[in-house]
Amino acid sequence: MVSKHNPTGNKKRSPLSIFAVIALCGFFYILGAWQRSGFGKGDSIALEVTKQTDCNIFTNLNFETHHNDVEIVEPSKPKARVFKPCDVKYTDYTPCQEQDRAMKFPRDNMIYRERHCPPEEEKLHCLVPAPKGYMTPFEWPKSRDYVHYANVPHKSLTVEKAVQNWVQFKGNVFKFPGGGTMFPQGADAYIDELASVIPIADGSVRTALDTGCGVASWGAYMLKRNVLAMSFAPRDNHEAQVQFALERGVPAVIGVLGSINLPYPSRAFDMAQCSRCLIPWTANDGMYLMEVDRVLRPGGYWVLSGPPINWKTYYQVWKRSKEDLKAEQRKIEELAERLCWEKKYEKGDIAIWRKKVNDKSCHRNSANICKPRDTDDVWYKKMDTCVTPFPKVSSASEVAGGELKKFPARLFAVPPRIAKGLVEGVSAESYQEDNKLWKKHVNAYKRINRLIGTARYRNVMDMNAGLGGFAAALESPKSWVMNVVPTIAKDTLGVVYERGLIGIYHDWCEGFSTYPRTYDLIHANGVFSLYQNKCSFEDILLEMDRILRPEGAIIFRDEVDVLNKVRKIAGGMRWDTKMNDHEDGPLVPEKILVAVKQYWVGSKGNSTSDDE
Questions:
Q1: Is the pLDDT of residue 209 over 90?
Q2: pTM value?
Q3: CA 70 to centroid of chain Cα atoms
Q4: Phi, psi for residue 298 in degrees, rounded to 5
Q5: Largest CA distance in the chain
Q6: pLDDT tens-digit profile of 113-140?
């Protein structure tokens, strides 16, 4: 039957008409795709952006040291608030360890030397100046032995510690011969003696804690044994000791054993030492030694050199009675036994204990064991006079908390905390993926700034370290990374230490426990998204400026909307900035903002100078 709308019925169309229809469809499809790609006349704006934007390589942001020759790149619009320089009296400003504020607090248990941060109305909203004549620090390893006087213009230690070989002043530099109070002949010989008992050479010992470090010569010389030492000392009458340490390129923070927990996780360090640190180990029923025990890994070592060890030789020099010193040493021995430490060595000025690998052979009074709690929750928490329990084990040979591989295998091996499922949301597989991701990110950073990975950036900070992937990808004898785990982020610092890296807990709403100008490179991954509703971006950026060296660099990685806010504030801070696309392309909302701090120094009358 034939339809009235198709009178011809099933009559076939001619091949020519079919070909014409197909050809027209193809033509219009290609034309539309060409225009949508941004290269047609219908999108001239896209053509211009594509021509002008290169988001992978900086052509006009110079990372080399050149003082005031940096050209300001792409100033933010609208115009940012311009931050003025602080008075030159704030050259060494440490907001949470200022002497005037400290003296208002009790001296008992060193409380006045702990962190006491300024209230909102007392915070500085200016740029901390470098001292007149400031110079780029010597590169490692020369920096271990030499520091420019202009950078840390404090000579008091050269007089106070002259006979102990801490530091000497020669011409326009300080020289560090490597001596210490208990090793005036040099740190190398001292470490050699420790290494006769402690397996320092084979990678078993990677992380160390130096309590009351002075200028950190022990930590400086441990670095050549591939050991990372976290050194701390208070800001006290030994002026600038931690500042000297960091200027030398040695990890250190301002800190003290006082009334609150140390800002490190439990089982963090493979060894700890006190070289005449003058910490009263037997005070408060042994509370300070119990805190060292908390952060010491099962199987780790504790070294004590100085009072009361070898008291028979030194009691007159120390101006203490034989009976007093003998009683102190006996009490330390008793405390060590309660902590399940075994004495391994005592000769001359040195005594060494080893913490047992588990509690199977310990004889402890259960009343003295700390109540169940998160032993890594330590930020501003009061120290307890109790012993941190070992993690449970199923056999006498099992290492409590998990056995670690020797370094460097330990760096990428799955950490015990992850293998045991103790880090929420992190599995062995996601850990390995995180490592791959950070290797990719660091390679992208190196394409942006070719100085990354060189000795030019010795002191590096990761403000939001996560699992430590950035530091692991950057691992090199040329640099070290302070891995900061924010107190409001997921607690991963224990994982960082299990990898053989070092770090610290911190709240970025407050000042960091360091001197100004102590870091060459700062990495801020997701920091500002994390703190978006917690505190002022301005305060965090001013603190970053305080701790960054002149001509140092910052890498921000965050959402583009967040980075635009950051960039606007940074426009008034004497930084040169440039936005960069994510390494996977411009459609990814996460971007990379890179900044370089300009060289300038303070001068009298609140004015500043760009000259050396």
A1: yes
A2: 0.87
A3: 27
A4: -55, 130
A5: 127
A6: 999 999 999 999 999 999 999 999 999 9
